[in-house]
Amino acid sequence: MTKTDKIAGNPKVSLHAATREETAGGGAGMKIIWGVSDSPFGKMFLAESPRGITHLSFFDGDETESLEVLHRDWANATLIRDDGLAGKIAAEIFSGEIRTKVRLHVKGTPFQLKVWKSLLEIPGSGLSSYGELAAKIGMAGASRAVGTAVGANRISYLIPCHRVIRSNGELGGYRWGVERKRAMLSSERAR
After folding, report:
1. Catalytic residues, which ones?
2. In whole angstroms, how far apart are CA 132 and each of 115, 120, 153, 180, 189?
3. Which domains does the chain have, with CATH numbers?
4. Most buried by CB count within 10 Å: which residue of 47, 67, 73, 166?
């Protein structure tokens, strides 16, 4: 899981899996910069390790829950707050066109990685159902497991879990609210 995967569907995003050492050590020796910024979809929490963005979430209220999740994921990493860096990265992400390669540094099982890679291949204005994703990764009938992996995604928007809908065409749930999901999809269609 130490290899870099270049995703055919989005050449501007590369997925880097956490190494066994990083995972087992809880990020020991790693410095993670995190911060809060405004985004077109509300307040955003972003964290970046030396290997790439490791967390992107949205919140209403304050960032406490996102910070707790980051700390659980990387319990032994040094966490440093820098809202300026978060704002700069947010401006790049939400500018409408990513100009530089965005590296994502993820912790997950081989199955989760396979699902997240599949999410990255959904076109910018496209949608997929959980069943379609399951079939695409060669596990037809595993839509529930795919749904669980989609829900475990720590890098919202860039790993586009918001593009997954129910097979009947309904939006379904979204960790950061259905209205936010609807806004993201509308924004992508408008481009």
Report:
1. 161
2. 11, 14, 18, 23, 20
3. 4-104 (3.30.160.70), 108-190 (1.10.10.10)
4. 47
